[in-house]
Amino acid sequence: MQYSKKLIVLLLATSLNGCAIDPMPIQDDERLASMLKDQTEIYGKQEPITAPLTFYDALARALKYNFDHRLTVMEAVLQDTQLEVATINMLPKLAVNAGYSAREKQAGSSSVNYFDQSQTAQLSKYSTSQDAVRGTADIAFAWNVLDFGVSYYQAKQQANRVLIAQERKRKVVNNLIKDVLNAYWAASMADHLLPKIEPALKQAEHALELSKTVEKDRLQPMLSVLEYQRSLLRIIDQLKKLKADLSLARPKLAGLINAPIHSDFKLDQPEISAVPPVLKEKMEELEKLGLFYRPELREEMYQERISRDEVWKEMLKILPGLTIPLSGNWDSNSYLVYDMWMEAGVRTTFNLVNLIAAPKIWTSAETQVEVAKTRRKALSVATLVQINVGYQQYLKALDSYNSANELNKVDQGIFKVISDTTESDAGSELEKIHAATSALASQLEKEQSLAEIYSALGNIYASIGLNPVDGDIENITVRTLAVKLEKRLEHWYKGEFPKLPDEPKEASTPVATNKAVTPAPVTVNTPPAASNTDKAVDTQKTSTAEHYAIQLMSSDKESDVTHFMEKWRADLSTPSIVNRSEQSKPLFILVSGNYSSLTEAQQALDNLAPKLKENRRNRLVPVKMSGDVLALSQN
């Protein structure tokens, strides 16, 4: 017995020691192998660069090989796979169980008398109904109605997460377009200017050395020499900073297109015209495009869906659970009459504690919906701000380009005149270097201004959220994708953007009031005739056709409305006064016009608004009329 206890303790200690896990840092050889593998795979499995890159080639390579974009693609695939899992989770549970058991001694037992608890001591009273060694197996089908409902809403939520992943991929594409625009123009500008900077820098440094010799030999006045050196040092510092800034452009572009950082790929001349593009769309149209296409706003709409489904899911969890089990069973016990049988039933469970937590759970879920709505509205405002800022940056860049272009012409002319002179003294040498640097700087400023124009366009495109590519791009070549991008972006450069779908009339009609009440019947009082315009309104022959008008003002005093109408009668079209009840009080509304569509009414409103701007009580808004009855009004 003592030996058995020691053996048990030893086995227990060995088991516990085997469960202990020590931290195992990655070894150097593992890190080295991983590093070499990553270096090979980062730039592997992609088309080599065999020709000078156009802008569209660079953008196509970024969309195909940039790892930020690849990551969003993989995340979208992951979400799609998780949707399949969530769909499968809606299926009923089907489980197969099998087991084997063996007892050291058979399960013998006896029973006692129920009434007096007496037990017979005879051995024949002991019995067993179970084999010492037996096997069991069953296949069980169970369907929980509550779990099905919860799984259904979880699958709907996951379906929206799939769409969110796609919108995030679109966001990365938008940012790539903006970044590649900036990087490609900067790299192209570096290719043009770096070869010119180096000779100018060497020339300035040589002039500085000569000036130090002049200073040492005191060949010129000391003050003139020091001022000369100060000018040279400023020029040298400007050239070095310019060189350093331009040297960063190519590594940035290489990172975006996933090319080796130190690779010597060539850039073709930009296919974008040197003439700055002009946006044809009005600011209002750009704002609408941004509110319609922006990926973040669409993502928040899907988040709102998820939050709404969360409300329903939490409500389902409060309900009783209903389970319907069905199973087929087998038991090798020889004492059983039937070793195989079917079993079915119904079982319900109800967690009463959930009734206490239900109000808080619902409130929390509904708050999530409101948070999603508020977040979407905040992003809408941010989108409008970004579009307006981007547009102003675009206008500023256009103006800067025009100024830089004129300045460059002047500086190039000055440099040509000075270069043609034959003087060779120190002052003339400094003047030549200064003129050469100024000409180079003005050329840089001109190209920077042009680059800023396309950078501002990139910001506008990113703010709007337009997507230049549709469908799968993994299975097409870089050149094929570049051609598709060129066709799409050429329209953008011309200011030609996709059109929005037509707005539904119901969505465009202003809401009468923010109170959830049914508007009272409305009648029309025709004011006393004072001119020919009044004859257009005849209360005895009213039309029942629906049309649109302009609501000009409202007041509880009919005299105020009449006075306003008489004051502006010459500018109004078929004015009339609508009388309606508002919380048991009379309300008089002045309307004008008879328009067949909301758009026509809005145009008339825009023309009328400047004339009535001095009036502070009027609230111009298009309204829908049914004959002479005001269908919807905004007070």
Written overview of the protein:
The protein is flat and about 135 Å long. It has a domain at 505-632: Alpha-Beta Plaits (2-Layer Sandwich). Helix 5 packs antiparallel against helix 6 (222-247), helix 5 packs antiparallel against helix 7 (249-256) and helix 10 (353-419) runs antiparallel to helix 11. Residues 507-544 and 614-618 have low confidence and may be disordered. By secondary structure, it is α+β, with helices and mostly antiparallel strands. The strands form two sheets. The chain has a six-stranded antiparallel beta sheet. Strands 1, 2, 3, 4 and 5 form a five-stranded antiparallel beta sheet that branches. The chain has helices at 2-19, 28-42, 55-65, 67-88, 145-217, 222-247, 249-256, 283-293, 295-318, 353-419, 426-464, 478-493, 505-508, 558-567, 598-608; strands spanning 93-102, 133-144, 321-331, 340-344, 347-349, 522-525, 546-555, 576-582, 585-595, 621-626, 629-632.
Strand and helix map with partners:
Layout: H1 2-19, H2 28-42, H3 55-65, H4 67-88, E1 93-102, E2 133-144, H5 145-217, H6 222-247, H7 249-256, H8 283-293, H9 295-318, E3 321-331, E4 340-344, E5 347-349, H10 353-419, H11 426-464, H12 478-493, H13 505-508, E6 522-525, E7 546-555, H14 558-567, E8 576-582, E9 585-595, H15 598-608, E10 621-626, E11 629-632
Antiparallel strand pairs: 1-2, 2-3, 3-4, 3-5, 6-8, 7-9, 7-10, 8-9, 10-11
